[in-house]
Amino acid sequence: MDPAQAAHAVFHVTPYTGYVYPNETVVPWSILIVIYPYLTGLVAGAFTVSSFYHVFGMERFKPVARFALIAALSFMVVVPLTLLSHLGHPERAFNAMMTPHTTSAMAIFGYVASFYVILLMLEIWFMFREDIVHNARHDRTWKRPFYRLMTLGSYEINELTRRYDHKWLMALAIIGIPAAHGLHGYVGFVFGSLKSREWWSSDLMPVIFLFSAIVSGISVLIIFYMLISLIRRVRIDEDCIKGMVLALWGFLMFTVTLEGVEFFALMYRAREGIEIIREYKDGPLFWRFTVMQIGIGALLPVLIMTLMVYFRTAGRKLLLGAFVSASLVLVSVIFMRYNVVIGGQEISKTMKGLLDYSVPYFGQEGWLMAAALLSTPLLFMYILTRFFNPWDDTAPVRAGGAHTRDSCRLGAGEQAPVSEGGASG
Amino acid sequence: MQPDESAPLPGRQDEQKSADRRRFLAGAGAACASAALASVLGPTLALGETRVSFPTPDYDWEKHNWGYGIDATKCIGCLRCVDACKNENGVAKDAHHFRTWVERYVYIEGEKHPRIDSQADPGNIAVSAPDASRFDDRYKDAKVEKAFFVPKMCNHCQEPSCVQVCPTGATYKTKDGAVLVDKSYCIGCQYCVQACPYGARYFNDVERRADKCTWCYHRISKGMNPACVEVCPVGARVFGDMNDKSSPISRFLKDNRVFVLKPEMGNKPTCFYIGIDKEVS
């Protein structure tokens, strides 16, 4: 058919084996929907680490607690961008919020996500209020008007306001726990609630998404904290890293167990069409799932961290082990997102055929677009940290008011200890 | 504005201001609310008064309950339905977008499972001409035990997954039983494409929105048959009003033991089949 040739230019056709429904040869959700849950997961996971300190009072997480929220917001800003870039009519996106169809899992997502973004911004504001007021008074750069605006007219800092801020911070952090985790569990529900695809249709899906989110968030904080500390030439707080490694270790074991249970249950139930799932598992999924997601991405870091915990590894080895483990986990989680989102669509609804999707390099759903969207949070993170310094060691002297911002940074920067909380954990 | 004498105390001035603001906000709020109310109630009221419904003014969708029957024992795989549908509804003429398609099931001697293909198979496309789709003769020398065709399309389910998951309500179930897409409201998220267990939906790349079979709603609401039913030379496709006891679909349902596709999904299709096989899904 000649028109078919012409039409190939505007959509991406996926080759297949066996029998698939003709309409299935154009895969609806592609790489953008892979990075959407990936980013949402990083948000939820970073928030978890922040709440370790802010809610549960674990002092050893203090060095990254403030940065975690900045990171969460930076990732969260890009989440709607991935969805909007994917829509056929992004200009109509608000239809879903203005006239939400209440039976749709996706319709409610807009509200859940907006609620969480507002909560996150409020929490960051309360957390940095003292710094904002300080900078609004003493900053001598072009940023001063911004800080003055951000004070929202309130310049008062004393014991009473501190208690008040802390009360709010605590309350928001507590509400944030179900909000952040609900947000991501919800993303799992978007997939898990669909009965049309055996690969997705699982009650465990929201839980698996949630736990893989937590491990990815912890990992991204380990990596960013270490890299940024290297760039800033400050000492990495070993105790903080150790805390994050322990958290990652625990949550990762749980995540792998869940993923294993889900997979084995699917194989063991062996419902209609299991032959095609077996074929898929032994074929394209062998590398992507068995080797990358489970083997190298999850079991290897579990092993590394188990050894580190057993031998009480410290010093450079601890940092190296943490960095390698965290990197592997991030790889595992992106493979998990890919295997769920793309994997679900590669198994035909006929259960009699497999599609072989390959992500194009260019275009709306290509690697380039995905890379651009994945790196956008770095830009946001850079900008946000220019305005809100999340690092304790260079924070302006609280309530002192006598020092300028620069003198604070210099003075604190030369003193080696990173945080007061470091020793107490 | 009076000068000094009427100048109120600072506090009173604030009150005055806030009273003004309240009045303004109340006015604006009322305007917004009435606009919203009008936009919500407007169409509903209009519908109630004049019994107007999409797309024909004198068509009352509450008086019909459409149903569709497919007799696979009659289908000869001529694919006129597929071509007629594409022409009637402006469906992209390629091998990846179909509102209806026909599957061919062939059991070869000694093989456990049937071989399945549709008109979208590259081999079949190779022997097809534009607007004249064909199945090729790849099995002419094979020892065929059993073979049959199964026309497929949107099942216009009573419990449609696509309607359930649509975030905006752009996909909806009409009162006469069809499942339609409001093309001006669809955001193109393709959640419905994922949710349909039957693969009946596709993304319209030109209009950038979800698309599917409408039972030729523009025809049936004028008393005509869907294009696929109209062109079927053997009567394998049956359509009609299930409220009307003498309609073709009512007789089809009365005279046959019918089956639906994937009943375990709980979607309750209103496309009823006879003569399909356990391998058909």
Written account of the structure:
The complex is a heterodimer of chains A (425) and B (281). Chain A has 425 residues and is mostly helical. Chain A folds into two domains: 28-193 and 360-392, no CATH class; 232-357, no CATH class. In chain A, 69% of the residues lie in helices and 2% in strands. Chain A has 14 helices and two strands, in the order αβαααααααααααβαα. Chain A has a two-stranded antiparallel ribbon with strand order 1-2. The longest helix of chain A is centred in the first third of the chain and has 34 residues, at 105-138. Chain B has 281 residues and is α+β, with helices and mostly antiparallel strands. Chain B has a single domain, classed as Alpha-Beta Plaits. Chain B contains eight helices and ten strands. In chain B, the strands form four sheets. A three-stranded mixed β-sheet of chain B has the order 9-1-10, with helices on one face. In chain B, a hairpin with a 6-residue loop joins β2 and β3 (115-118). Residues 1-17 and 37-51 of chain B have low confidence and may be disordered. The chains are: A mainly alpha (425), B alpha+beta (281).
Strand content of chain B: 15-25%
- Compute the CA-based radius of gyration of chain B: 27 Å
Strand content of chain A: under 5%
Q: Enumerate the strands of the largest sheet of chain A in spatial order, edge to edge or round the barrel.
A: 1-2
Structural class of chain A: mainly alpha
Mean pLDDT across the residues of chain A is 89
Number of strands of chain B: 10
**How far is the N terminus from the C terminus of chain B?**
80 Å
Task: List unreliable stretches of 5+ residues of chain A.
Answer: 1-9, 394-425
Average pLDDT for all residues of chain B: 86
Number of domain units of chain B: 1
Biggest interface in this structure?
A: A-B, 51 and 54 residues
Q: Termini of chain A, distance in Å?
A: 70 Å
Helix content of chain B: 25-40%
Number of domains of chain A: 2
Q: And the CATH topology of chain B?
A: Alpha-Beta Plaits
Percent of residues in helices of chain A comes to: 55-70%
pLDDT < 50 runs, ≥5 residues of chain B: 1-17, 37-51
